[in-house]
Amino acid sequence: MKRSVAALVTTALVMTTSLVFAGTASAQTMDKVAKVGALGDQSGLYQDIGGPGSTVAAQMAIEDSGLLAKGWKIDLISADHQNKPDVAVNIGKQWIDVEKVDVFVDLAASNVGLAIANLAKEKNVVNLNSGSASSDLTGAQCSPNTVHWVYDTYMLANGTGKALVKSGGDTWFFLTADYAFGQALERDTSNVVTANGGKVLGSVKHPLNNADFSSFLLQAQSSKAKIVGLANAGGDTTNAIKQAAEFGIVSGGQRLAGMLLFITDINALGLNVAQGLNFTETFYWDMNDQTRAFTKRFMERFKKNPPTMVQAGVYSSLIHYFKALEALGGNPHDGRAVVAKMKELPTDDPLFGKGSIRIDGRKIHPAYLFEVKKPSESKYPWDYYKLVATIPADEAWLPLEKSVCPLVKKS
Questions:
Q1: Looking at the domain assignment, is residue 18 inside a domain?
Q2: pLDDT (tens digit per residue) in 76-106
Q3: Record's family (predicted)?
């Protein structure tokens, strides 16, 4: 009788152990399931910057990661945040709680980007922001769940602002989009201007997605500032530049500084209007053989335009994210652990080259000061930029010792 009881206990233990191993194997299988959420402006002011093109870039990154062939299941969904933080957060909560999204990408519009950064921290998912500009994402509002990939307001100010002041543009007046991005860009550019011996004579705020800039341009004109800084983006920037030409801003002796310009903006303006504009970017489709090869593949799917730096950033950030998932051996559902691994690994991809991610979440790579070509200098479609200067990675971004990110102080 005792032997029978012992045998039953042994059998039960074996069965229990088998169930545990089966459960572990199932968990490991499930840990190789990840979902990407491309949350961008799909139909509004910034749709050409990210939006549908970012979704295409995300799909390309999934395919190029190599993880599908290694047994991973990676899904992609997209939605339109309409440039409204409340809409973005509602979508984000639905995605995390119901759709089981593990990582956000795109996020053009800084008010949206900051809101999703807070949500990602609360829900412990990964936030790969290539669309927002506010340097607060790696400053006062930094998070262990966020990586800010492509550009920020400090880099834009440090690149374009410093160059223009050094070339004689020592007095500035700003036309600023009245929300988080515009305010951060004006702030950071003003700091660069004054630090380099220049002076800010004034500024005026305009609504987002504004059609008529006449009153704002008249104020800029009457300021007599040498530089009219456009602290806005997308359609707001192109509208302001077109109307500035009508008001004779440049012909009257003032210069325009497009503090954030994309290849799609230059295309919308046309080279006759845009020629001579200086601006800073971290990616240009025609930079080298690798960027041209990617652009060819991208445009086979997305025939509207070459990749903007936001769309390139979606691809690049996801490629590195997938490398981190592979290095971890699975478990994409612990956002802080994934971002920590991303920071450990050096970055290297065909679009941005070699780089790194700092403790504050700032992705570090070179920046480039460009000038828009004259129509006579453009030799083929989308041949719009000429390189003025390369800003090394260690000079392009706010020095870490000056960061107000709480993560830096804890490290």
A1: no
A2: 999 999 999 999 999 999 999 999 999 999 9
A3: Belongs to the leucine-binding protein family.
Q: How far apart are alpha carbons 219 and 148 in whole angstroms?
A: 34
In the numeric block, which tokens belong to residue 40? 């961008």
Cβ atoms within 10 A of the Cβ of 243, count?
Answer: 16
- Domain-located, residue 353: yes
Contact 201, 254 (CB under 8 A): no
Residues 106 and 233 in one domain: no
Strands (DSSP E) found in 133-281 = 146-148, 171-177, 199-206, 227-231, 255-258, 278-281
The span from the CA of 342 to the CA of 142, in Å, is 16
Would you say residue 26 lies in a domain? no
Burial class (CB in 10 A: 0-12, 13-18, 19+), 84: middle
* Token couple for 183: 């305010």
pLDDT digits (tens, 9 = 90+) for 15-72: 333 333 334 334 444 589 999 999 999 999 899 999 999 999 999 999 999 999 999 9
State the Cα–Cα distance between residues 176 and 27, nearest whole angstrom: 50
199 neighbors 171 (Cβ within 8 angstroms) = yes
Give the domain extent around 198. 154-281+368-396
DSSP, residue by residue, 59-84: HHHHHHTS-GGGT-EEEEEEEE-TT-
Count of domains in the chain? 2
The dihedrals phi and psi of 339, each to the nearest 5 degrees, come to -65, -40
Convert 221-264 into a string of H (helix), E (strand) and C (coil): HHHCCCEEEEECCHHHHHHHHHHHHHCCCCCCCCEEEECCCCHH
Q: Do 65 and 82 share a structural domain?
A: yes
User: Encoding tokens for residue 360?
Assistant: 């504050």
